[in-house]
Each structure stands twice: as structure tokens, then as C-alpha cells.
Specification:
two-stranded antiparallel ribbon, 428 residues, disordered C terminus, Rossmann fold
Length: 428
């Protein structure tokens, strides 16, 4: 059996597109993703606002699209893919993170899985594989649905290098969490590590090819996936092994993948990928992969919201409050999350957390992305322009947007939506 391979390259704005092309070639993308099939580019939107390290970057998406087209993948076979949660507005997020502009400029289909897409019962999609689930049968005893369009098409994940208050680190494996499950995926948080393993099983059954391009131009440390301290790290990773790429990224951050990441260990033990660095072939800029950043991780300085999420899912608040998340009372949690993160934490802390990295070459590239020109060979951006304070939201406009998001969290609550549909069918 061939060793799992993870490619790691150093990158900078002036060569970012050439670097991504080299990265995916080193990682063997052409060997994994059949160009005759549709390929979904699954973006990662951990916050609808731009926050360095949290979400797929425009150069990550554009570099991957350019690389695919350069390898002969047909434009009409590619689509960018988004899902939503009740606390993240995907349409705002794709605009604020400048992904929509890339999608439109390359003429790609833009698929929002929650709009007009058919979802099919997982048992119909994967059959008896459901008997091997570690958690999902218990979390969803009546079953759950996955997007029908995913069945038979390639998936290419676009995660970022960051820590996470539920899973210690997050990357390729968790990116499927935002695609395969619907808005009620919060129910899996108490069994999140097992859930990620179950989702990887599903992916291997329904996707002919699975690949990931992970951005570490910025990397986030702290109580992610949102309220982090971003660092400029100038690396990108790619692999067809979702377990291996998460293990390598975690090791670079300073964690022991098999010891510290239960989801990696469970997937490794189940034979779904390789989480043991001794058994992973690292190619590309190997010296970059040997870096150890000594991240403090997500648990040392957790936010008020993160501490209480832990108490609700695993601690003393599980009995008095945890049950409400499976009932019509669940929207209280969505409102609390939006109110805390968007209306309190961001206005209070964003400037001090991200101000310095916005002056970095990557921060300046993001600020001016729509107006910049690549060099003649299309390798990257020789000039990135100046920094922009406008990237940090503030003032009345931000609070009005936050209030809109607060109302949306209630209006889109799946528990209320299901009750309304039920009443409508009863009346009919």
C-alpha cells in the first residue's frame, strides 16, 4: 500500500498561484480527481466577516481554480460549494471574504446547498455503511440527509490552518462537517470527534476522489474557529489523505496529532487515513513542514462563549440546558452565539487581534485583491498595495448588520422551520 503523501510549500503573494500549481502537482491531484467528473470546491466559511485565518482565502480558491484549469479540468465541470449554519450567513461570507468575485470572474457555478438542492437520506446513499458509524446513528436516530449532488462527484476541500475549541485543531476532515450535514449539525458537537470519522466514511463512499488544499498564509491560534490570534506563516498544504494533511498541519502548529487530536487518532485506527507522521511522505519544501510554531491551542484563553459551549456539551450545564438544543427552544443558542461573537466580541477585540497582520503582505493583498494585476506569467502579485483600516468593521453599519444576523438566526432556525412546515401540511 503506498504511503500517504502530504505536500507542503512556502508561498508569498508574488508567486502564490505558481506555488499552488506546484503544490497540487506534488500532492498528486491529477491521480485522484477524475477530470471527467464534476468537482465541488468546498469553501470554508468559519465567519461571515473577514478574519485572517478563519476562512478560505481568495488566493487559495483562485490558485486552486487556476491549477485545475491548467491541468485540463473543464471549467463547466467545476463549482464552488457553500452550506450555511444558523450563525453564519454564507452569502455575506462569500462576499466579505472575496470568494464570490473569484467564482464569478472564472465563470464557475456557485452552489448554495441549502437553496434548491435535493437532499437524500444517508441510508439511501451509503446503505449498510451506516452500521459502521460511531456517532451519527445515535445523534440522528431517525436518520439524516446529505446533498444528492455530492454522490458521484469529486470533492476538493479548502480549509485553513487553525485551532478549534471543539476539536483542538480543524482542517480537511472538519470541512466536510459544513457540507454533508444540514443546519442541525450542532447536535453532533457532544460527539464531534466520532462524527468527523463517520463523515469521512461517507465521503469515501460517495466521492470518487477526495482532495484538500489547505491555506496557511495566515494561521489561527486560540479559541477558534473565530476568535483567534492570527499569525503570518506563508505555507500551504495539499493531500488526498484528509487524515494525513490534518496531522501534518497540527504537528506544524505544535501538537502531537495522535495524542492530542482524537478525531485523527480514531480515523487512523479505522484505516481511513494516516495520522502517524512516521508513516507520511512529506514532499515539497520539507524544511517548512519541520517547523513547529508552539501554538498555545484553543483551551488556554477561551472566550466566555467557548467556555459555556463546553459546559453545555460536556460539562455541568449539559443536563439543565443541553436538552433544549433538540427542541423548539434551540434558537436561544443561535441568538446567544450571534449576539456574543458579532455584536460583542468582534467590535471589542477584532482591532487588537488582527490589526498588525492586516499590514502584512497577505493582509494588503486581501485589502486590494479586486484591483491588483498578476505578473505576465500569472505566477502571483508583484505589488500588493497598502493596508486598509476598512477591513475592520466598526460603527453603526456593523451593528445594523449584526442585528440583521440576529434576526436571521431566529428566522432560519431549523427547529422552527420544521414546525411551520408540519403545521402547513396539517392544514393542507
Amino acid at each position: 500500500m503506498p504511503r500517504s503523501r502530504v505536500a507542503v510549500v512556502r508561498t508569498q503573494p508574488s508567486s502564490v498561484f505558481a506555488d499552488v500549481a506546484r503544490l497540487v502537482e506534488l500532492a498528486g491531484l491529477r491521480e485522484v480527481l477524475d477530470p471527467a467528473l464534476d468537482t465541488a470546491l468546498k469553501a470554508n466559511l468559519s465567519w461571515h466577516f473577514f478574519y485572517p485565518g478563519a476562512s478560505t482565502t481568495p488566493w487559495q480558491l483562485e490558485g486552486t481554480v487556476r491549477a485545475l484549469l491548467g491541468l485540463g479540468y473543464a471549467r463547466e465541470r467545476l463549482h464552488v460549494c457553500h452550506n450555511r449554519t444558523v450563525v453564519i450567513d454564507a452569502k455575506l461570507g462569500e462576499r466579505e471574504n472575496k470568494l464570490l468575485g473569484v467564482t464569478e470572474r472564472f465563470g464557475l457555478r456557485n452552489v448554495h446547498l441549502y437553496e434548491g438542492e435535493d437532499w437524500v437520506d444517508v441510508r439511501e446513499a451509503v446503505g449498510d455503511l451506516t452500521k459502521q458509524f460511531l456517532a451519527l446513528n445515535e445523534v440522528y436516530p431517525k436518520g439524516f440527509s446529505i446533498p444528492r449532488r455530492f454522490i458521484g462527484e469529486n470533492i476538493l476541500h479548502l480549509p485553513t490552518v487553525k485551532t478549534h475549541v471543539f476539536t483542538t485543531t480543524t482542517g480537511a476532515m472538519k470541512n466536510a462537517f459544513g457540507g454533508l450535514l444540514n443546519e442541525q449539525r450542532h447536535r453532533t458537537h457532544s460527539r464531534i470527534h466520532e462524527t468527523l470519522v463517520d463523515l469521512l466514511r461517507i465521503q469515501k463512499a460517495i466521492h470518487p476522489g477526495v482532495f484538500a488544499v489547505m491555506d496557511g498564509s495566515f494561521a489561527g491560534d486560540g479559541p477558534g474557529p473565530r476568535c483567534m490570534i492570527p499569525h503570518v506563516k506563508n505555507v500551504m498544504l495539499a493531500s488526498a489523505d484528509q487524515v494525513a494533511i490534518d496531522a501534518v498541519a497540527a504537528t506544524m502548529m505544535g501538537f502531537d496529532a495522535l495524542r492530542d487530536l482524537r478525531y485523527v487518532r480514531l480515523a487512523h485506527e479505522a484505516g481511513l487515513g494516516c495520522g502517524d507522521l512516521r508513516e507520511i511522505e512529506i514532499v515539497g519544501d520539507v524544511d517548512a513542514a519541520r517547523e513547529r510554531w508552539s501554538f498555545e491551542g484553543p483551551f488556554r484563553d477561551m472566550t466566555f462563549a467557548a467556555k459555556n459551549q463546553h459546559r453545555i456539551y460536556w460539562g455541568p450545564l449539559k443536563k439543565p440546558l443541553g436538552w433544549t438544543l433538540d427542541t423548539l427552544l434551540a434558537p436561544w443558542a443561535y441568538v446567544a452565539s450571534v449576539a456574543y461573537h458579532d455584536l460583542y466580541w468582534y467590535p471589542r477585540h477584532a482591532r487588537e487581534r488582527i490589526g498588525s497582520v492586516l499590514s502584512s503582505p497577505w493582509g494588503r493583498l486581501f485589502a486590494n485583491y479586486e484591483s491588483l494585476q498578476t505578473d505576465a506569467e500569472g505566477r502571483g502579485f508583484p505589488e500588493v498595495g497598502g493596508p486598509s483600516e476598512a477591513l475592520i468593521r466598526h460603527g453603526a453599519h456593523h451593528y445594523l448588520e449584526g442585528l440583521r444576523l440576529l434576526g436571521e438566526a431566529v428566522a432560519l432556525a431549523p427547529e422552527l422551520d420544521a414546525r411551520l412546515r408540519s403545521r402547513g401540511s396539517t392544514r393542507a
